[in-house]
Structures are given as structure tokens and as C-alpha cells.
Amino acid sequence: MSDFQALRSTFKGDLVQPGDPGYGQAIARWAKNAARKAAVVAFVKDEADVASAIAYARKAGLPIAIKGGGHNPSAASSSEGGLVIDLSRYLAGVRVDADKKLAYVGGGAIWETVDKAAIEYGLATVGGTVNHCMKRVICVTSDIPYRLTLGGGYGWLSGAHGLAVDNVVQATVVTADGRALTANETENPDLFWGIRGGGSNFGVVTEFVLKLHPQRRTVFAGPIVFSPDKLEQLLDVVQEWWTKGPSEKEGMLQVFTRGPDGKPCIVCFVFYNGSEEEGLQAYKHLLDLGPVAVMAKEMPYEELNALQNPIARPGQNAYMKGAFVPPTLTRAELTRVFARATALSVPGSFAVNLLLEYFPLRAANAVRDDATPYVRGLTANALCLVIAADDAEGAEAQRYMQDAARELIGMFAESPEANMGYGNYSPDSDALVNQGSVPVDKAKLIFRTNYPRLQQIKKKYDPDMVFNKWFVITPAA
Hints:
Blueprint: H1 3-10, E1 14-16, H2 23-27, E2 40-43, H3 47-60, E3 64-67, E4 83-86, E5 94-97, E6 102-106, H4 111-119, E7 123-124, E8 136-137, H5 144-150, H6 158-161, E9 168-174, E10 180-183, H7 189-195, E11 204-211, E12 213-214, E13 218-226, H8 231-244, E14 250-258, E15 264-272, H9 276-282, H10 284-287, E16 293-294, E17 297-300, E18 317-324, H11 331-344, E19 350-358, H12 362-365, E20 381-388, H13 394-410, H14 429-433, E21 437-438, H15 440-447, H16 451-461, E22 470-471
Parallel strand pairs: 2-4, 3-4, 21-22
Antiparallel strand pairs: 1-2, 5-6, 6-11, 7-12, 9-10, 9-11, 13-15, 13-16, 13-17, 14-15, 14-19, 18-20, 19-20
């Protein structure tokens, strides 16, 4: 019996190979250009399946990738000729313990499932701003547990409850040697510390346990659209609002883009955790500027994280890159960013979206730098998301997307090394070349003073670097 036949004989989930029915769907990703031709896709049913898949891949010499929601253009959840451990088919459920205010979330769940399950009890947690993706506490883009939760995790509720990593209380992790470990403050606390920001460097997370918080059933949210002649006034008003410090109930995504008619515009996705009356009052300073369209309204909470879904629909060729926004950025500089973003956007070929994320950061920055691997002292995020038309494929289109994003993000920092930005927004060219991993020096830049401690944890749980996607940590010597 071959090693693969032995795996199949005990595997409870589904094993899909090239030529099998459903193979194309099994390797498809949110970003069309992030798909890779895996040798095996293992849709795991439980921790034993995960352990079997890891053991088989190690023996066969196959690289391993882990897929939660597959929502990152870097191809970190794909593997050319390797084995993909896919959590999305069988480990995507959510169970809510309303009394303890906890959600037990499968590693393959999407935010939509979490939001809907929790709000039934008047509860919520910090999730991504796109609800068809998975959690990326390791992980706009928001795999639930997977990159949103493992890599930091910003969301509309961050103003009140911090980052997604700050709301993880426990995880089940299958390590490189096949052990299924519980990681929390008292059991394997070093592993628990490592996964809350250190990504999938230490194992496969099959379940997250997340804190839930009381949440009203409706919120005020939606887009407010401005024409370019309002740009300077808008930038001044938003800067004043941000400098004064919005309340924990507020948040805004400002997008420099072109509308469906191809004309440049500025879209402000606003959020207020309250009624429509309260929301209109909170954003009166914007409304008084005379927007061309106001689509913000009171809506069910579970619809909040679907606001950006039309922009971030799956199956497109996409590239994204981020930076932290310097606090000293001037109106004149942002005006130049707007002009360049809309100039680089080619109607019918390339849609260039420059997002500025204004989530109140007091709660997130109140956490000590060494409390999780994700270092604080945070400022607003900038993200450039470039989407290519379906017929704009290949190396030339990829180059255009990369160059456009790098140019715009370069306007926020003198060099990538000077400002790595939010790790989940940094699938750089090196990540594409290396199938979703990035050089060690970039991991050092991301984790800074926490990197040596992460190296010790890597040495303990994955000394052979079986898990080598995303920002790869090298084991301590």
C-alpha cells in the first residue's frame, strides 16, 4: 500500500487531487491570481485528519499550506505541487455559549457565520470588514481565525474591544509533530502567546474561542460619497475628527477610487454603534459638506461587515499592499495621493482603490507590546487594493498591479523597510515568488522586539519549519 493509499484509508474528510471532480474549485481562491496547482487538497474533518495530512506531507516531502477562507492575494493559503490543509468544508461551524459570552469558532469559519450566530444572543466580537472571508487574528480584508485573527485583526468594534487577537481566549492547535494541543493562558501559554499575532508559524488552528461582548441589534453604517471638488474640505474635516479622537462607537473607511461611471470620487464608509439619529449627529460634519450620495442608514448589525463585499467580491485578479499612515501626513500630501490613485485606475482594466482605515485605537494601543506578538503604538492603516479585469491576466497585469500599489503606498513611507505596515496587508512581490512566504528580515520588521521570543517558540513547536508560509519565523539556534 502506498503512503497516499494509507492516508486515504484512515482519512475521514475528503482528499482531492488533479483530475478529481471539484479540483478546480478546491484550489480556487478569493483572488483568482492566488490559485496554485496543489498535488493534494485535504478537506479535514478533525484534528486527527490534520495530523495525518501533516505526517503524509512530511514523509512525501510536500510543502504545506493552510486554508481558512483563502482571502489573501499572496497565495499563502495555496501551494504549487504541495498539500493544502483546507478547514473550510468541515471545520466552519460556530457555537455560542451566551452565559459565558464565548464563541467556539472553527478554523474554516467565515465572519458572516460568526456575526449571525452571536447577534442572536445580542453579542458580537471584533471581526473583519468583509464577511465572506475568514478570521485572520494571525489574519480588508479579512480568513476568520485564519489570517485576520492570527495576524492582528482590525474591525468596526476595535474602538471598543481592541484587535481580534485581544479577544482570543483559547485555541486548539495541531503542531508539526501531530499533537493536538489546547493553548490558553494556563495550558501551553507560550503557544497561546505565539499564535495571537505570530500567524500560522506554529501549527494548524482548528478552533478559536473568542470573547463576545454585548451588542445592540442595529447600528448606523454605510457609504457617503463625495465628488472631487469636496476633497480638501473633506480631508480637513476628517483630520480634525481623527485628531480630536473619535469615540469607541465610531469608525470610518475612506476610499479614493472611481465610481461605477468611471469618475473619481471619495467614499466614506461610516460606522456608529447606535441609532440612526445618533449616527447622523455624529457625522453631521461630513453631511454638511454636501455629499453626492448618502447611503448610510440604520441596519441590522450582522449586515455591517458586508458593506465592502461588492468591492471585495471573489474570483477577481487582485493585489494589495499596506502601510501605517504617518500622523503628520498633510492635506496636500493626501491630495496628491488621491490624484495619483485615480490616475492609475484604468476604467475597464484596473480598479485602484486606496483605503484609509480610521478605527479608534485607544483600546488596541492600551495593550502592552509584549502581551502579544503584535506590537502596538498603532496609527491608522493605509491599504491599496488593485483589481484587474477578468481579461487582464498574466505577468504584465500582475506587474501593473504591483507597481501601482507600491507607488501609492510609497507615498506614505520612504521605503518598505521604513514602514512595513499591517502584516496582513503586506503580500509583497517576495511573497508571490515564494508562494506566500516573505523573507526573514521582513518578519523581524513586523515583530520587532518580540521576534526573539517567537524564535524560541518556533524552535519548540516547529524546529523543522514545516509551517513556512506568511511571515516566516526561523527557529532560535
